[in-house]
Design a protein that fits this description.
The protein has 873 residues and is α/β, with parallel strands linked by helices. It contains 28 helices and 13 strands. The C terminus is likely disordered. Keywords: Endoplasmic reticulum, Hydrolase, Membrane, Protein transport, Signal, Transmembrane, Transmembrane helix, Transport.
């Protein structure tokens, strides 16, 4: 038990220490001196205004020259594509180095993407790729137009050289998959720190769809020279090589790839690739055979992020294994934490539903307000482990015998082993896993999953402790103050939602002078997200209700909070639409924005239901509702009856030392167990306490009474045992038979959470965006649970509670109004005429009161009930 209590605190300490060391290493790595030299340039940026250049509401093409602008086109076109939050002005260094090699050999262009967060949303990648294809077509057409206009034999290029940074490389590769792409218009791409393998922010569904299309693209003659970041690149975690003066070397590789006689890019892709390897990697053509033979080893170094012996030079705190794991699998932690929250919520609801079973509850009065387990208590692996894993662990432990470790530890170890084995041999949802997976790779993945699961479990425990402190001292006081303000202003929830929507729409009109229909849609999405976040904070800071309801709110808050990551890219995209709205509203954009508003409204409605009520009671809680002895009527109530009820545990007549296979025994002592007369000699032998049966499940375990134990076949009028138990059990069986559909529907709701958790940790372990689809599924299940599966008796009780609350509010408001109307007593001087009139009025009212008293006195003799009601009225 001590190990079980200390497991979560130890994991939390391990996770916090690991995170602190990792952050310290990142900070120290950023502080290292850079080997790059400063490039000084004199850039001139000229917006391209050719007739064939595409017009776009957000994007534009810019020409980058040195010292003075040029109008003519005479060299090889080079187009720079910025990345995530990148600017077109980053092309100035590349332009300077190309200008140093030959001022007229290259024509440098750049695309202005308004510094959009390209890595957060796939729609931005698609829009930028579409504009890239149009810009490439316009640049190539401009070469033809100027050649005809000047009547000179100018070299008309067939393609444009692309130099892309970060997500700009993904934009360039995506452009080849679109319908407006002109074949062979892009033949050479230099990618600087481009995450071609997997996205750096994998929580957006559109980004993952872009990567799927990019990976399924057929191979062509385009040469991709990918130079990944060094030890300072913490987002694109790969180290291809260590090259001094990177842009200067890139410019040299482009210069050597151009035929100086024809002033064209070399058409043979193998020659261009060999030149890039020679310049960047530092090998000649004779050594290329050896390089190609060691491609697999080189890719291993790239995946690790460091070459052999390179890691030691950085003097980091963490070992290389943990550094590589956190740099490459850090986003997987969020996936595991989200699946863990789903599994914990499933375990809580399932255990809470089973609490109301007739077998587990001897009487309705045994129920109290602490039946829904807390989120913290269910975080232990043995508490939230699936049932079949627990069964397998119990079977193994029973077959091996009880060891010193105990059943709980053995079950924990067995559950973890089975889960890891199942995940490994199903492939974890990893797209690059092949059929010929080596044993060492499997063991490596198992070790990674053990570390990641332990790390995620410790982080969740630490965050839960931290949020409990924030909830107590910050969140709850703020939420209570806001609740008091809304109560004083008499603002209902729909009014608050309308106010938020109105404020966001007003800010949208202020931000954008030309508010299009797309801007209105973007404002609606942002307003719906603001409402959802507001309700989510209210859910986390609300401490009203019973203990069970608070535990349920805490678990639901954890699930919804961990599912908010996929919304970051979508909100960033619609915020950009609000800043620069397109001219029209397409059907795809309308469907996408409308679906987001619907999902956010669904989540907000679920939070609103959870703020007011507990999850519905299962049908088994209403067994015996006709007699008023159901568990639902006793749930949440404290019995004030001080009389001791005689049960099988304290009945003096029902003392049985043996029971059936499922019997529950307690220690028992009386005069018969204290001494025993032995034999003819009359020797008295004193013995210790014995055990007696207090409950047994033979009625549910066996079909016929012949197999029942003596305790179950007894007949006791004092405690109601025997035939009374048989009748109750028969009624309960008939009740379960009649409520099969309701029981299945109630059990399906928590099962949906478990199914979603299993899908997330198997198929979606490396697809974090699946939480965007799994959360609405769970929300729909809970909403149906609250609305459609609510028992009629419970619905009537909820209505009665709401009526009582509204009546109390009305009474309190009327009392406050009456006090305000009466006001404080004041003494003022009045004229004599007013005093006379007031005295006459007082005498008149006193006469009327006397008449009313006489009438009431005469009527009281005939109807005493009226006499009691009249004064109160």
């Amino acid at each position: 038990m001590a190990i079980r209590r200390l497991l979560l605190p130890l994991l939390a300490a391990f996770s916090v220490a690991l995170t602190a060391f990792y952050v310290t290493d990142i900070v120290s790595t950023k502080s290292y001196a850079s080997s790059c030299e400063m490039t000084y340039s004199w850039p001139v940026y000229t917006p391209v205004t050719w007739r064939g250049i595409p017009s776009h509401a957000k994007y534009q093409a810019v020409r980058v020259d040195m010292k003075q602008p040029r109008d003519s086109l005479s060299g090889v076109p080079v187009l720079f594509i910025p990345g995530h939050l990148g600017s077109y002005k980053q092309a100035r260094s590349l332009s300077r180095h190309l200008w140093d090699l030959d001022p007229s050999l290259f024509d440098v262009f750049a695309l202005d993407f308004q510094e959009e967060p390209t890595g957060l949303n796939g729609n931005l990648i698609t829009e930028q790729a579409t504009f890239l294809n149009d810009a490439v077509r316009a640049i190539l057409r401009e070469y033809k137009r100027q050649s005809k206009k000047t009547n000179k034999q100018l070299v008309i290029p067939e393609s444009v050289v692309i130099v892309a940074h970060s997500m700009g490389g993904v934009v360039a590769r995506t452009a080849e998959t679109l319908s407006n792409y002109k074949r062979r218009s892009i033949q050479h791409v230099v990618a600087l720190g481009v995450p071609y393998g997997n996205p750096s922010f994998p929580f957006d569904a559109e980004v993952n769809a872009v990567y799927d299309r990019m990976h399924n693209k057929r191979e062509d003659d385009v040469v991709y020279v990918a130079i990944t970041g060094g030890h300072k690149d913490t987002l694109v975690t790969a180290s291809l090589t260590s090259v001094d003066k990177l842009l200067k070397v890139v410019a040299e590789s482009l210069y050597k790839a151009v035929d100086l006689e024809t002033r064209e890019l070399m058409s043979d892709p193998s020659i261009r690739l060999a030149i890039a390897q020679e310049v960047l990697v530092g090998v000649n053509s004779e050594e290329l055979v050896e390089i190609n033979s060691n491609v697999s080893l080189h890719r291993t170094y790239v995946q690790d992020g460091y070459y052999p012996g390179e890691y030691v030079d950085y003097a980091l705190l963490l070992p290389q294994y943990f550094t590589h794991l956190l740099r490459t699998k850090f986003m997987t932690l969020v996936v595991i934490m989200y699946a863990l929250a789903l599994q914990v919520f499933y375990a809580q609801v399932a255990q809470w539903q089973s609490r109301f079973n007739f077998q587990s509850t001897s009487s309705p009065g045994d129920l109290n307000q602490d039946d829904f387990p807390s989120f913290m208590s269910m975080m232990h692996p043995i508490s939230h482990a699936p049932g079949f894993l627990k069964s397998g662990a119990e079977f193994v432990s029973s077959s091996l015998g009880r060891t010193r470790l105990g059943l709980s530890t053995a079950a924990t170890v067995m559950s973890a082993a089975l889960a890891l084995a199942m995940a490994v041999f199903t492939g974890f949802g990893k797209s690059e896993v092949s059929s010929s997976w080596e044993v060492t790779d499997r063991l490596t993945v198992i070790a990674e999953l053990i570390v990641l699961y332990s790390y995620a479990l410790g982080l969740v425990y630490a965050f839960t402790k931290l949020f409990s402190l924030l909830q107590r001292f910050i969140v709850s006081p703020v939420v209570s103050v806001l609740d008091n303000v809304t109560d004083r202003l008499k603002l209902q929830r729909w009014m608050i939602i309308a106010i938020i929507h109105g404020v966001v729409q007003l800010l949208g009109y202020i931000r954008s002078s030309n508010m299009e229909s797309s801007g209105v849609l973007a404002s609606s999405v942002l307003a719906a997200f603001t409402v959802f976040v507001t309700y989510l904070v209210a859910l986390g800071g609300n401490v009203s209700g019973t203990t069970d309801q608070q535990n349920m709110k805490c678990s639901l808050f954890a699930v919804l909070w961990l599912s908010i990551f996929p919304w970051v890219g979508k909100i960033a995209y619609f915020a950009g639409l609000l800043h620069l709205p397109p001219s029209g509203l397409s059907n795809d954009l309308l469907v996408e924005g409308g679906s987001y508003v619907a999902i956010l409204t669904l989540l907000t409605y679920l939070i609103s239901l959870s703020l007011d009520r507990m999850v519905p009671l299962p049908p088994t809680a209403f067994f015996g509702a006709s007699s008023g002895q159901d568990a639902a009527s006793a749930y949440g109530k404290v019995s004030n009856n001080s009389s001791v009820k005689i049960t099988a545990e304290n009945c003096p007549k029902c003392v049985f030392e043996d029971g059936g296979p499922g019997a529950v025994l307690v220690e028992y002592t009386n005069h018969t167990t204290r001494r025993v007369m032995v034999g003819k000699t009359g020797e008295v032998v004193y013995v210790g306490p014995t055990f007696r049966v207090v409950s047994c499940d033979c009625v549910y375990r066996f079909k016929t009474s012949r197999d029942f134990c003596d305790f179950c076949i007894r007949s006791c009028r004092l405690c109601g045992g025997g035939s009374g138990n048989f009748q109750e059990a028969a009624k309960y069986k008939d009740f379960l038979e009649d409520s099969k559909v309701e029981l299945a529907m109630h059990a399906l709701v928590p099962m949906i959470f478990q199914i979603c958790a299993v899908v997330q940790v198997t198929y979606g372990l490396y697809r974090p965006h699946l939480s965007f689809y799994l959360t609405p599924v769970c929300a729909v299940a809970l909403v149906i649970y609250h609305v459609a599966l609510l028992h009629p008796i419970e619905a009537r009780r909820i209505k009665n509670k709401q009526r009582k609350k509204t009546s109390k509010k009305k009474k309190s408001s009327t009392k406050s109004k009456s006090k305000a109307q009466q006001g404080p007593a004041t003494t003022t001087a009045v004229p004599s005429t007013t005093t006379t009139t007031t005295s006459e009025t007082t005498t008149t009212t006193s006469r009327n009161k006397k008449k009313k008293k006489r009438k009431s006195g005469t009527s009281s003799t005939t109807s005493p009930l009226i006499e009691e009601v009249t004064p109160s009225s």
